[in-house]
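Hey, sorry to bother you again with one of my protein questions. I've been puzzling over a protein and I'd love to understand its fold better. Take your time with it, there's no hurry, and the full record follows here:
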Amino acid sequence: MINMLKIITRSQLNTDAWNACVASSRHVRVYGYSWYLDAVLPAPDWQWVGIVNVDTFGAYQAVMPVPLRRKRVAGILYRWVVHQPFFCPFLSIFSAAEWPDTAPFFEQLLRRFRYGSLFCLQRQPGIDLSSVACHLRTTHTIDLSVGYNRVYSTYTRDRKLNLRRARHAFEADNRWTLVESTDIEPLLTLFRENHADAIDGGVADWAYVLFRKLAHSLHERGLFLLRYAVCDGQIEAGALFVCEETRITYLFNAASPLGRKANARTMLIDQLIQEKAGQPVIFDFESPEKPSIRSFYQSFGAIEEPFWAMRWNRLSAIENWLRIGWSYFKKL
């Protein structure tokens, strides 16, 4: 059977074949499905294409999503560059093969796109990466199949103490309750009021629009689980989980000062861990690089899983001068 590797635009992709390939992959992640990519890469300034290994029967043997963002210089349309989107911490080459040959995919990617950055599960050392800066990053995961008692035993002493305090507050004080909801607006309000200002550069309004669209897509497919911690009728913390058959992703969360003091997010996470413990499920914290947040996730006994941050720039001197000059001018 002859296979052919080619870049296919979103409009030309066989969506069913693409999603079937992602679903059968040993590295299956929700981020790879076409509907997820459509949600986090909104037109006109974002799009995505696929590098696809197609056999003679038209079946997709392996696929690699390539997220693109339109960059401008001095107000003039510049070019499409590879750019990791929000709510998509890493991507992958999706294939049912245990060890797919990833080198041709990276060769195609670097040859076609001269500038970009991408977070990817695989790094292929078998090709020339002299023009690519690669840095190891990690997410944190918990294997819930071992049962709750085993998982709880790996919590740090401080996490166990804070959990006991939270349980006491929630069980002994009728002011606090945990509730399930489908309304993400309180979660976004909590984030705006308590977290957005701490993010370098702030959070643009379009990012909230994007999140609403993504949440709707997740809800439509039965992957959406949103829970709140409520005190005296006021929502003080919330967490949105993506619940796949074998993986739970801690996608988004926020808390007020009162919610943080009451360890409400610890309660929300532990509650779901208890519910899913003993099942063949991985709990993924989607760890950022911020040390304090990583430490919080590690306190649940989560272990590190690696992925790679890749960055490359093969633009001409003039192109780079325009790019850097325009970035500097916008800051004036």
About this structure: DSSP finds eleven helices and 13 strands in the chain.
